[in-house]
Amino acid sequence: MAAAIVNEHLPKPLDATSEQPPLFDGTTRLYVSYTCPFAQRVWILRNYKGLHDKIKLVPIDLQNRPAWYKEKVYHENKVPSLEHNGKVIGESLDLIKYVDNNFEGPSLQPKDPAKKEFAEELITYSDTFNKIVFTSFKGDTVKEAGPAFDHLENALHKFNDGPFFLGHELSLVDIAYIPFVEKFQAFLSGVWNYDITAGRPKLTKWIEEVNKIDAYKPTKTDPKVIVELFSARFLAKH
């Protein structure tokens, strides 16, 4: 079961004028951007496991990022990154496994071997899924993006004992996909009037169920903001 609901006050993003928080002072910090889907994966998991007091959220303004973030915290200069036990680590898919393995709260990894294997397969595919959809924004979008959502629809048929990818229990697989499906759904609907749920009943149900998860709700971005951000990034004429 997920941890109790926490109404967390979200801090203001740190920008180029902000002072750096202390490094390696014993506080575990998750560096995020409030609109970044990669960072959102780890943010959702942290909330779901009830780690609000154990992992401090540190939002970064990616449009005006502080120089100290690259120089002193995370040389890759991307989010998410996690400061824990005297080191800083990144890469969202690695981080969701790391947080699940190294912190208390409900485990989101299956014990059943068949589910375990399928979970690894789908987590690996998530990079391909994102690439297909991101690339489609520059081409014949609906035609190119469609098969990626068909893949998810088919995957959701594998374990029929519940609405999630591995059946009745939420897992890291769902957390890997939630932020991207959220952003893609808003952008494809807002710009191309393309409904990713049309003709995909399992995906429709999955999105419905995911939207009920309290750990996810505070991490969501307003669909209008998604359309603005993605339009500026993917549709701007260079």
UniProtKB/TrEMBL annotation:
Keywords assigned: Detoxification
Enzyme Commission number, as recorded: 2.5.1.18
Protein name according to UniProt: glutathione transferase
Residue spans crossing the bilayer: none
Short name of one Pfam family: GST_C_2
Reactions accelerated catalytically: RX + glutathione = an S-substituted glutathione + a halide anion + H(+)
GO MF: glutathione transferase activity
GO biological process: response to toxic substance
Similarity field: Belongs to the GST superfamily. Lambda family.
GO cellular component: cytoplasm
Domain GST N-terminal residues, every copy: 26-107
